[in-house]
Amino acid sequence: MTAILAYIPLLDPIPVFHDWWFLLLIPLALGISVIYKAMRVPDLREFWRQVAVMTTLIVLAMIAGAILLTIFVRVLIPLIPVE
Amino acid sequence: MAASSSSQPQPQAVFSPTAAILAWLWPGLGHISLGERKRGLLIMFGVLFLFLGGLLVGGLDCVDRRHDKLWFLAQSFCGPLAFAADIANQRLVQTVPEDWSRGSEGRRRFVEGDPDLRRRLSRIGLGRVNEMGTLFIALAGLMNVVVILDALYYVPPSAAKRREGDAEP
Predict the structure, then answer these.
(1) Contact at 8 Å (CB) between A69 and A62?
(2) Which residues contact B2 (CB under 8 A, 6 or more apart)?
(3) Which one of A11, A31, A35 has the shortest CB-CB distance to B60?
(4) Which of A50, B22, B92, B99 is 20 to 30 A from B160 in CA distance terms?
(5) What are phi and psi of A33, to 5 degrees?
(6) What is the pLDDT of residues A33-56, one digit of tens each?
(7) What is the value of pTM for the model shown?
(8) In angstroms, rounded to a whole number, what is the distance separating the alpha carbons of residues A81 and A69?
(9) Structural contact between residues A26 and B132, judged by C-beta atoms closer than 8 angstroms
(10) Phi and psi of B15, rounded to 5°?
(11) Chain B neighbors of A36, CB-CB under 8 A
């Protein structure tokens, strides 16, 4: 609590995301989608819907990648025989 | 299929170095100068969202020309904003002593509990928070490279939309 009260935005590192850093993927994907779709969407009335779709796809792809890597590291690697 | 799409007239790209320079000077300004005000404002919102988000998460220490040279290379494509953040970082955060060896001035001030030194040390980001903040700002810079290239070889969206409409069966 003291750390949050002492926090000066834009100057100090934020003291709340040390354990929940992976949640920052969502605003990261949102920012990338906004910039990309602002250039590529022919009709800007579709803009926010396409941003939502792209953000969701990025987050789902990252989750799928995390699951595959977890299986590889926790299941497949231990199956390799050790001499 | 390939032959029919290649026979379609390609939309004319406008070569605009001025728009590219403006896009580097302030994200989104290049597209605004090309008459795409709404697109420019959306690009500006996106890049500034990532840039300020990175500073909010990781603090000023995320933009560091001296210690994170490669990251700063990507961040520098955000334009003068990144250089301003780096100057602020060098003046406000990176003034802690480099030498922490026994008997050094830095060690002595730290042991004596110098409040100014402790405050400056607390502003140096560590661990995941620093990594994520640095990544946010680096990605803002790299996305702005795409924006700069889009402004440099600009294809009006009306022409691009017509091309997409022609490609549909």
Answers:
(1) no
(2) none
(3) A11
(4) B22
(5) -65, -40
(6) 999 999 999 889 999 999 999 999
(7) 0.82
(8) 19
(9) no
(10) -85, 115
(11) 143, 146
